[in-house]
Every structure is written in structure tokens, then in C-alpha cells.
## 1
Amino acid sequence: MGRGSVAVLDVRSAEVTVAVGERGVNRTIVFNASHTESYGGYFHRFFDEDKLAEAIYACISSVERITSRRIRKLYVGVPGEFVTAVPRDRNAGFPKRRKIRAGDLDALFEGGARVLEGSRLIRGTSMIYVTADNRRVVDPIGLTSTSLYGLLSYYYCREDFAAAMEKIFAKMKIELLYLPADLAMATYLIPAETRDECAILLDCGEASSSVSVVLGGGTLAQIAHPVGRAQLAARVMQTFGIGDYSDALRLLTRANLFAKGAGTREFPLSDGPREIDFRLLAEVVKDGLDEICEPFAAFLEDCTGRDLEFRPVYVTGEGLFGIRGALEHMSKRFSRVTEMIAPDLPYYNTPAMSSRIALVDMAYEDHNERKFSKRFFNTSGGSI
């Protein structure tokens, strides 16, 4: 890749994307090349690793052809389904009052690292630091104190995910580095000042979704569940006897969950026009949204001690985009404001682009930090 460019692999629950890009001014992203392929998806594990490999090979080949360059290093976004985020408190005391150094942060992180069976540690980030005089700071380096407290996050990638990736790339001579995709989206999409007081991100995909409770540059709690747009489409197919999945997806975009006077009208399907009861369609979609919300609403109730009572849920991902009234219905289920969030970039300002944009941004930051430091962890959330 070019000197300032990074290559990322964005693994979603129904498609994979390889993108090469770099960060522009004001954290904009400039793409040199990008290619997306569908594959079999996953439910706790990949359904068909051969199809996954074929999709990734096609993406790599296309991007290398467009850029006329070989990919030597690839940042792999690990979806929430395959990530465990573990928060830990760490304290360090000093013999006397002195300036806090980078090595003190390294020691703080390394002292909290643990082995998690069946997973590997891929990243460590900080949520908050507090000095002896109760100063809460993002970066304590250079401050004087007799102690340092850190609320830290450790991200573990499941070994079966890493093994699948390493098998695919075994003969390609490409170095793989892993990034937690949900963290990348949270830190890119949600402003830092919002994350300083806790924030909630729901990434709704095609067949898998996840919720993260984030604080600062880290994650307090995270959960994934195998629900998404595919479950909504399946309900529509079953209710209306539709045999084509793409027809069901198109019908979802015509649903309006709170429209008055919705009745029966003709809708074109691949096998011919069909009379559709749009009032019934709205109820079917609402039931499907309830299925998506249920595990995440229970999860957020369990997080009541984390100052989340009045925090909105920020929703991103391809799963709910285009379904009119979906956010309003979910707000009722979550009993909190629900807002769609997407990259604030021309041409890329849709929720479906959130993961690849955020991964390129995080990978670009890591790539540049590696040039200047050998530390394993840093305060801005990057493994170095």
C-alpha cells in the first residue's frame, strides 16, 4: 500500500469488504479502493469458511488490481459476535510525587492483562485516569502525582475467528492485525465529550447485532445477539408468502410503522405484482423489532448502575436503515431516545458505511503510531 494508506477487512454478518484508504483533514476518510462481496455469514461461528475465503480472495484481488499494489499488512475488524470486552480497575502508587511517564501507563495495562481461555488479547484502551488529587483526565502523561488510577478495557478476539482468518491468509504473506469493530465505530461516530459521560451504541447488521456501553476510549459492557434485518425479512416472507429474499428487503423499505390510513395496495414482486396489506406489514415489522430489542433492553436494564438512565441509544449499521418508524418504535421498547448515527462525510453518510469508515480511521491511527513507538498500549485506545 502507499505510504499513508492502510488496508482493512470489514467482516459483517452477510458480507465482507476490503478497503484501502487514509485519513484526510478533520478525520475525513479518503478511499483509494474498496470491494464488497457477500458470503454465508455466521451464527456464533462462520457457516461456510470456504465461501468466506472465496469472498475475501475476490475482495483482495479486486483492491490490489485497482491500486496496482500488493497488500502486505491488513487490519481485520473483529465483529462484536467474536469479541469479549473486559473492564478492569488498576492502581499504581509511586514512592514520591513525580511526573507520570509513558512507562507508567504500560505497567498499568500490563498488570491488568489476563489470559482468557479460547480468546487472545488484541487491544487495551483506557476509559478514565484519576490522579492522587482526584483529577480525572484522558491523558495523564506529564502530570505530577503520587498515584495513578485507571479504568481500563481489554479486548479479546475469539480464537476460532482468528484461526479462520489465519487459515485464509496462510499462503498470502499478509500480516494480520485485529481491531475490535464496535470500539472503532463508537470512538469514530460518537463525540468524545458524549463518551466522557457514557454512551450506548447499537450496531444492527444483517444477521447479527451488538450493543456497547462506552466510556471515554473504552467499553464498560458489550453484548452481541444473532438478530438483525434478516429476521425482519424472514417474518415478512413467512407472513406474505414471499419466496425471494430481495423482494422482502424491498418491501421492508416501503413499511411505515406509524402511517395513518395504511391499507392494501399492489406491490411489484419478482414473480409478479401482489396485493399487500401495509397495515399488517407494519405490525409484522414491529414484532420483528421487538425481537431485536428484547435481549438488548434486558442487557441495558442490567447496566442500570452505570449512569445510563437518560442516555440515548445511538443506532448504526445496515440493519434498520430505510425502515420508516423503526427508531420511534425502538425508543418505546428501550424507554429512551433512539437516534440513527452515521459518518459525517459526503457520499459515505449512511449507517451501512459506519464500520468500514471507522476501521480505516482506527487502522490509520495505529499505523502512524507504530512508526514512532514500540509500546503495546496507548492512552488513545490503540495497541502499538
## 2
Amino acid sequence: MTLTVLLAALVLAIGPVQSQEEQRVYTIALYAPDINFGGAMSKASFVNAVAAGLSSRTGLTFKGKSFGRAGDFKGAGGVDYAIIGGSYFAVAGVGKPVAFATGSGSMSVIGRGGGPIHSLRGKTLILPQPAKACEGFVSSTLLGYQAQAGEFFKIQTTKDVASALAAVKVGKADLTVGFDAYAGGLPVLFRSNASPLPVATQVNPNIDPQVAEQIKSAWRGLSVSGGGIIRGFGGPASGVKAFRGLSGGKPKARAPSMAPPRPPQISFPVIPSEGLDRLSGSSDGSVISTPPMLEEDL
């Protein structure tokens, strides 16, 4: 078989594969319950704008899908990439991160009224998803682990931050967790230094590695705005890491002892009687008692 025939066979073998790769449609799923897009239409518009941007930057074809509930998102098939809310990704990481969103905003506790913390006891705290992580965030920040949010507040949960904010604004709940930019006139009771903006991830592990690298590069530097706080992709991962730290379990600390303090035990070396004679001029072996030391003296 001549070299020309071999080359022709190789072209025929590779050609259809490249054509299939070019014709393939990559699906991007959006699930970001901590981002207030202002409605289903705006949410769909955002993910479709991301798809159009990636198509332009890669020459490949992308389409977007948006989800409002975690169960629907996790049960969806045929997803290649996802845009996941930073707070949700911090505790339920789905896929391999390829880019972090850029923008502004600090995760905060937002509520009605004000006053000292103890005046909030028994109030209704409505938590968007991920509810357990948001509950941990309130325990560690607003309450400083002096109490657990689940014991201090009446807890309600809802599907996303838009629903939670709406409940607070109409008086069905008293406070919630969300980015400070969404307060909309409500008092910000605590503003953290964590900014868990969304994360773009590769969900499908079977994408050709070279193509996956090309798409990853296209994500970074992509300029698409949405949700009032997202400006594009290519930021640091620090915001997600900071939220993960604030929403985790209570740090280990040694519990204080409830037993009364014992006086310190002090032992002295035995001094021979002749030694006592030389030191004090007395050998009667009398004992000098000292007052017990207080705990604060230690």
C-alpha cells in the first residue's frame, strides 16, 4: 500500500470524527439559587447569552438550560457544562471547575428591623437553597457560635433567594441570607467578606481533552452580565472557599470544666534536718500554710 493511499485512508478516518465534533451541541445548565435574576425569562436570557458567547469564542455550538430546583438540576441528563451558584457549589460541588464568575457582592444576613441580636430570638429565618449551608453561615457570623441558628430562630426554607427576599419584604419572615446587593432597602444585619459568585464546571467527563481545554480557555475572560452582580467569568476561587469556611460545622473547642478549681499541688524537695538547721535555725519541722491560689492567678 502506497503512502498516498495510507494518507487518504487516514483523512477519511479522521474527517467524520472532526465533523461530528464540530456539529455537536454542548448543553450548559444553570442552577444558581443564590442569584436573583429577577424571573425565569432573565435567567434563561443569561444562560443563553453565555452559550452564545462560548459559541463565538470557540466556533462550537452551545445551548443553555435553566433550572429552579436542585432535584431537577441533579436529575437532568445530557448536560456538558453547568453554571452553579457559589454557595451551592461550596457544599455540593458538581463537576470540575473551569472558571469562577467575576462581579461584586458580599454574602450577608438581611432582615427587617434592627436592634440588638438578642431581640431577634424567636424570629423567622427563611433560608434559600442550600438551606443547611445558609443556616451554618448564620450560626457562625450573626450569632458567632454563641447559639445555633436552628435553636435561636424559627427556620423556614424556600427554593431560592428571590423567594426568600419576597417573604421578608411582605412580612412572612424576618430575615434571610443573600448578597448585600439584594437588600433593596432592608437592613443588612451582617455583611461577610465572602463573595461566593457562581462557578462554571465541566459536568461531562467524556469531552475530548483538547476540545475541553479549548472550551475552558473560552470560559475565562467571557464577559456576560446577569443577576445584578455577575460581570463575566475568570475570577478567583477565594469567595467560594470563604463561604465554605463560614458555613461549616462549629470549630472544635475545649468545653469549660464545671468542677470547682483545685488548689495547685506544689511539692518541695526533702531537706535533711541538719540542712533545716542551717537554713532557718529551727528543726521543729513546722509547716507554713499558704492561701489557695485563685483560678485567675493561673
